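Recall that a protein's primary structure is simply its ordered list of amino acids. Everything else, from secondary elements to tertiary packing, is in principle encoded there. The following example makes that idea concrete.
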Amino acid sequence: MKKILITGAGTGLGRGTAIGLARAGHRVIAATELWSQVSELRRHVEDLGLQDRVTVDKLDVLDARDIAAVGDWDFDTFVSNAGIGECGPMAEIPVDLVRRTFETNVFANLELTQRIVRKWVDAGTAGRILIVSSMGGMLTAFGLGAYCASKHALEAIAASLRDELAPNGITVQTINPGAYRTGFNDRIADTTFRWLDDTVNFNRTKDVKAGFAEILADQYDPQDMIDKMVEIIGADRGKYRNVWPPATEELIKQVQEAAWTRTVPTT
C-alpha cells in the first residue's frame, strides 16, 4: 500500500485516478484547487464507501498557505497533476496568458515539488515523484503552443530532478497522456476565443476553430488513461517516461524523427 498525494484531483484524469488508486487499496490525499471541489468530491468518496482510504483537501498550487500545509501531510508518493492551459496561435496570443500558464504548470508546481523533496530528504524518505506532463511535452499542436511550451519545460525539470535526486533514493517519472475526452482539451481551446478578435488579429476565428475541431474530434475514452495511471502510480517499479496510448507514443517518435530532416522554404 502506498500513501499518495495527487494534485488536480477535482476533475478529469486526476479525479478518476485518485478514486482508482483508492479502489486498488492505496491511501490517497486527493487535493483540489477549489473548496467547492473539496465538498463535492468528499460526498462522492462517501457515496463510494472510500472515505477510509481517501482524504480530500484543498491545494491550490498558487496559494502559499496551501503549499505550506502540505508539510504536515503524510505521503510517500507525489503525483504532480495540477495544470491549466491558455490557447491560441503563438504569434498572437497575449504574453500575459502564456505567463499565467507557466506560473501554474511550471513555477508553482516546481515550488511545491521542491518543498516536498526537502521534506523527504530531511526525513530520509525514499519517495516517488510522478509528474503528469503530456504528449504536448514532446511535440506541438495547432493553437496549443503555450500549453505545449509549459509541458516541454516540465520535461526538462523532470529529467533534472531524476538525476539530481537519485543519490537521495527519490525516484522521478513522467506520465504523458495523449488526447482524452475529459473536457479539459475542449475548455482550453475555448480560452482562445476570449481574446482572438477578427478586427485586431490576423488569424481568423473561423480558421482557428476549424483547426481545433480537427484536433478535438479524435480523443480517447478517459477511463483508459485513468486505468493506466493507476497501474503506473501503484507499481513498485516502472519506466521513467510513460506515454499512453501506444498510438500516441508512435506519433511522438515519428514527429521527433521527422524534425531531423525537415527543411524550410528559402526566399
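The CA atoms of residues 228 and 244 lie 8 Å apart. The radius of gyration is 19 Å.
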